[in-house]
Amino acid sequence: MTNSKLEQSRPKSRKGKINWARSQEADYFANTVKLYRQGKYDEDSFRRFRLQHGAYGTRLTSDYAMVRIKLPAGEVYPHQLEKLSELSEQFSIGSAHFSTRENIQLHWVILEDVSEIFRGLAEVGLTTREACGNSIRNVMCSPLSGVCPDEEFDSTPYALATARFFLRNPLAQNLPRKFKFNFTCCEKHGMVRMVDVGLIPQTRNQDGSTQKGFKIFLGGGLGNRSFVGHQLEEFTPEEDLLYTSMAVVRIFDRLGDRKNLARNRMRYLVNDMGWEKFQNLVLKERAIVRATQSVVTRLNVDHTPIEIKRPIRITNESVNSAPEGFARWLKGNSFKQKQSGYNSVFVTLEAGDITSNQLKVLSQIIQDFSYEGLGRCGFNQNISLRYVHDDDLSPLYSRLLEAGLAKSGALTMSAPIGCSGTTSCNLALTNSHRLSKEIQRKFLELKLDEDDDLHNSSIKISGCPNSCGQHGIATIGFFGGGARVDKDMYPNYMMQLGGRSDGDTMLGISSLRVPAKRVIPVILKIIELFKQNKKQSDDLKSWIHRVVSGIDDSEIKSIEDLKKILLPLTTPPSKTEDPDFYSDYGSDTSYHTKTGKGECAA
Amino acid sequence: MCRLSQENVVKTTTDIETLRSEIRDKSVRVIDVRREEDYKKNHIPSAVNLPLAKLLADDSPDRVLTLIKSMGIDDETPVVVYDDTFGALASRIAWTLEYLGHSDVSLLETTFSTWKSMGLENDNVIPEFQIKEHTKKLRPEILATSDYLESVKDKENVILVDNRERLNFLEQHIPGAISLPYRTLSTQNKILRSKEDMKRLLNNRGILGDSEIITYCGSVGTLSGLAYYALKSVGVPNAKLYVRSFKEWKNLSKPTAKQEDANYWDLSAE
């Protein structure tokens, strides 16, 4: 009796062409852990090794790791989701987590089990290699690349080729610090000015023919200090993409600060050197790279068009009328593709969390509804299905509803980003993760996801001043800290307003400190004030932009005016008056700050 | 360090084809541990029903002995147990038989659902048996009581294994225990990993060798019963089941430990 009899007679799902895995890395990792436990590996070398292989430390313990699985260009195939479901159930907490950078993370994994996860991942061609540590991290691509009406061409094949070129490449095994590439579709979607290398596809007319290329931004990034990236040149032709990438990585490798951990991302190098000097250096280095390749080095870009075909479904839904909530869900979760009749649908998650069982169901749903047969990681700790036919939207909604995955508002302000915070991170000061979930629940309860005025605004929360939660580019952003009244501590957030990552990228302006348990009332108050003072054509984003720029002519002219109104909401009550104020979300004991060592820099 | 002697490797599971042929030869007693109403609808041919709840109502040795006899099992009858809950309930029954001194008991390698989905034979005939005689030779060496556990758990060659889910473990566990959630032990179609995979998994975790290994779970020794058989499947010579598990431990107000300073529950998507 073989297992093949057990499989349902369902057509084979689509599989990716690139195998990112190396199965021998599992054994190597297992053996190294043993040596480390036997004291034959010192802490620092082991940490470097562990991070290089994608296993991050866990809050205040050395027994557990977080395993970060890279999904290059955000692509994830049905059989991979099924494997991730199995692994999260076996070795993690029965849930997995979609990150902001198109990784899937498994938390609270016992260090000795990490190699078993590698083994499972290798079966489906996935890797965690260089997902952490001082290496080239997952290469991102906009989930709308290939379907966005505003794009010049699909940058997905270039993102995949770049990821493939640099993975395990000796050039990038020991950089001064982590290094990130983001490809996007257009100015509006994705972040190109807030990353080491950001790329927007461009075309130009050259001697009567269309030439492909990129607009490349360098030296941006979010962090304890954030910087906006600079455009290298007017147009970088596609032939120069790899040489430019190599040149930038080489300069960073050579000149980046290897001593000062707090400021060794490339953006500091660019800032210290000055943009023009850095720009010249890149252009010179590129000429050298181009001239000195001993063999022809080029990106292996696969331009085979993806096959778009109607999935064969075993289950036959004959839905007569759309289920309740369909219109609301459709509005906040779907995007009309440039291909007529097709939609990209975003699945709303709570701060990126998804259960093992939902992952399994999602694998099936993608096979049944996506004409391209794969999932793409979304913008906000979520996942999308593309090429969903107009006629399939209502049955898809029904299926998501059954799986508890049909919450509204994935593409709206009601889906805040929250980093993992004190749920697992060594550096966290507050439970930003839970706060994000609480805000989402409140927004959906108040149906704010349906409010057009809030549609393109965002809320992003980090549990400490580092920017994993991307608070600096949020319309309303928060980063965590502790505050005290006499001896009693309470969780507190700095609120930043007016951040954005589009063509007019700017960082949010610090406004005032808001205690954790007052964050929701403060957000709602801001929305109320906006409604009272907005102009006809305003949305929250444009109004806040005027306020932080100090150019609004209503009652609230500047951030100072806004602060004056909000300040009373943030006054701490006494501990006897309101003991809950002094505990963080998800905890019933008094708040205190406790952190371990950060590992990004290790 | 972690070598296994050949004679320690005993039969813990029975594969599907072997069971089918034993049923044809009428050389096996099959026990279905699902609820009575499920059993009555359909079951593996010739299987007798012993719902776990019925056993747990009173699992004193004399009462269990009466049950075994009434199912026509004597000292020599080979017994195969199955369930529909990834082998955990079946394990608890099998372990009870072992504890009573029945030496030839094993688990069906898969669940009843998988058996059915493979299109294998099943019916709703309720078999009748003659009462058989069965001796009582208790095997205290496979049982851990709370007193026993407390007396040995800090010894260097004793490993205490918690088979509940990871979040439950983080929240509260017996001090010194290591976490090996029951789901880690199985594959999609088999209640236990292959020997090779199981050995590697346990070896990585340092759960092999000559140590005394005690398993426990939430309340009645089902998940940890499966772990007991997982250990047995790779020849661990000295495995014990703390059959009253964490529920009793807490009721007795014995010490517990937790993972401090982290809000791990908020990572769960449940």
What does this structure look like?
The complex is a heterodimer of chains A (602) and B (270). Chain A is an alpha+beta fold and 602 residues long. Chain A has four domains: 111 residues, Sulfite Reductase Hemoprotein, domain 2 (Alpha-Beta Complex), CATH 3.90.480.20; 153 residues, 2-Layer Sandwich (Sulfite Reductase Hemoprotein, domain 1), CATH 3.30.413.10; 77 residues, Alpha-Beta Plaits; 166 residues, Sulfite Reductase Hemoprotein, domain 1, CATH 3.30.413. Helix content of chain A is 30%, strand content 19%. Chain A has 15 helices and 21 strands. In chain A, strand 15 and strand 16 form a beta hairpin. Chain A starts with 23 loop residues before the first helix and ends in a 36-residue tail after the last helix. The N terminus of chain A is likely disordered. Chain B has 270 residues and is of the alpha/beta class. Chain B folds into two domains: 133 residues, Oxidized Rhodanese, domain 1 (3-Layer(aba) Sandwich); 127 residues, Oxidized Rhodanese, domain 1 (3-Layer(aba) Sandwich), CATH 3.40.250.10. In chain B, 34% of the residues lie in helices and 13% in strands. Chain B is built from eleven helices and ten strands. Chain B has a five-stranded parallel beta sheet with strand order 1-5-4-2-3. A five-stranded parallel beta sheet of chain B has the order 6-10-9-7-8. In chain B, helix 10 links the parallel strand 9 and strand 10. Chain B is globular, with a radius of gyration of 19 Å. At the A-B interface, helix 1, helix 3, strand 5, strand 14 and helix 12 of A face helix 8 and helix 9 of B.
